[in-house]
């Protein structure tokens, strides 16, 4: 059995960088073990598997996301990659994705130069990290004095749970070097998908790094789900005006500069995350052989 795996990099900045994702269209015939095997073989932080759910509505699709280690309930960068891949083949428009955490609308448009995708996240919430914050700081090798007091340490949600940690200066963010094993154990216990460490350049422009040990990845260069959760965090804590647009810059320390645009709308508990995606290979797919 041969499976076609599309490869895209989502949220690149100025056409470079971004976060690679695998995309498998027409995945209805694949079993869960096969999807896991493909994700492991591809080796990206996530691979998305899509299949139609309705003959009358081809724009409604079931999607499942797998890291090399496990299934992930929601993944922003693989969603953007999938939407751009579909738009390249069938034209821009609106998709409705059925994820493990509910329906996620995604719209694509062509601005004359490139395709852009905007996803609307699941409902967001945020709460103080509590006693786990101290253990997290130890694993991150950060002291309380490294933190920005304007941004409390929280667990934020937008389909997955993400620990949100704001630091005082860019140097601290650039020098981040965490204890992988300790953080992996803590995140497994707490059910956190990533740890979103950020520095506020100003109230609307943020630099971030995302640790992702549960997926078998030390660091993610662009994390759409975390950006959505972060947007909900900023809104709920009234750290930004609404309506508002913020920009999250990520991946620069990895040599994979990424740009995520987050829009916060009044009267909504969802967040919009916008980005582009670029095809990574000259051929439209790579073949993966499965038994």
Automatic annotation (TrEMBL):
Pfam families: PhzC-PhzF
Swiss-Prot/TrEMBL keywords: Isomerase
Molecular function GO terms recorded: isomerase activity
Entry keyword annotation includes Membrane: no
Isomerase listed as a keyword: yes
Annotated family: Belongs to the PhzF family.
Name the UniProt record assigns to this protein: PhzF family phenazine biosynthesis isomerase
UniProt source species: Nocardioides pini
């Amino acid at each position: 059995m041969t499976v076609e795996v599309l490869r895209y990099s989502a949220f690149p900045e100025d056409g470079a960088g971004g976060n690679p994702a695998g995309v498998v269209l027409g995945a209805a015939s694949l079993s869960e073990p096969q999807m896991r095997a493909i994700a492991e073989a591809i080796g990206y932080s996530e691979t998305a598997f899509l299949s139609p759910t309705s003959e009358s509505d081809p724009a409604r699709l079931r999607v499942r996301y797998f890291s090399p280690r496990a299934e992930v309930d929601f993944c922003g960068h693989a969603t953007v990659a999938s939407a751009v891949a579909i738009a390249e083949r069938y034209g821009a428009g609106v998709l409705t994705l059925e994820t493990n955490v509910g329906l996620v609308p995604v719209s694509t448009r062509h601005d004359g130069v490139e395709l852009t995708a905007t996803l609307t996240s699941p409902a967001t919430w945020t709460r103080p990290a509590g006693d786990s914050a101290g253990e997290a700081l130890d694993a991150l090798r950060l002291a309380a004095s490294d933190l920005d007091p304007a941004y409390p340490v929280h667990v934020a949600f937008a389909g997955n749970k993400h620990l949100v940690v704001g630091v005082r200066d860019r140097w601290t963010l650039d020098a981040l070097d965490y204890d992988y094993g300790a953080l992996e154990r803590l995140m497994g216990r707490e059910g956190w998908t990533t740890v979103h460490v950020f520095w506020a350049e100003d109230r609307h422009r943020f630099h971030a790094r995302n640790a992702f040990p549960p997926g078998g990845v030390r660091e993610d260069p662009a994390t759409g789900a975390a950006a959505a959760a972060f947007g909900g965090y900023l809104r709920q804590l009234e750290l930004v005006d609404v309506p508002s647009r913020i920009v999250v810059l990520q991946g620069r320390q990895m040599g994979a500069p990424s740009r995520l645009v987050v829009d916060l709308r009044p009267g909504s508990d969802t967040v919009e995350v916008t980005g582009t995606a670029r095809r990574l290979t000259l051929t439209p797919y790579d073949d993966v052989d499965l038994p």
